[in-house]
Request: fold
Amino acid sequence: MKMYSIQSIEAYKMAIQKGFLQSNKKYQMDHISYNWMGKQMEKRLNGYSFDNGIIWLWKDKPKNMYKWTGETGTKMVLLEIEVNEEEVLLSNFEFWSCMIFDLNNGTSKEDFYEFYGYKMEDVFEMRSLKGFGNTIQGTTGKIVIEQIKKLKFFICR
Reply:
């Protein structure tokens, strides 16, 4: 399955040296929603450990990546990768974004369901969720260098 990931030049260089890209948990946000996603990945992806962090992926090539990925002037790289479906947990990006905001601002799972009419686990449903877009994101624990098929270097604006 073709997916995309945006990484810093430093992360990419380190991946070349090690032979794989793996998130460093110390650089990840310590949010309730990120921790929840990591635990879901442990449940749903065979062999995944949240101790290794999360690498974010996109099903479609990101648009306007120059603007939303980092501070102005930051050097980044867009990776086009080929991954096995069993190694990726797919979810609805817009629904996830809503979850991040609500959970990190004290909304309970029960209140979330009452307000939206969806359980948090519905983020993994690959069907249309009324009121949310259809952008598909993915999460994985590791990308082996051989999985990288194309690169595009860019500078954030």
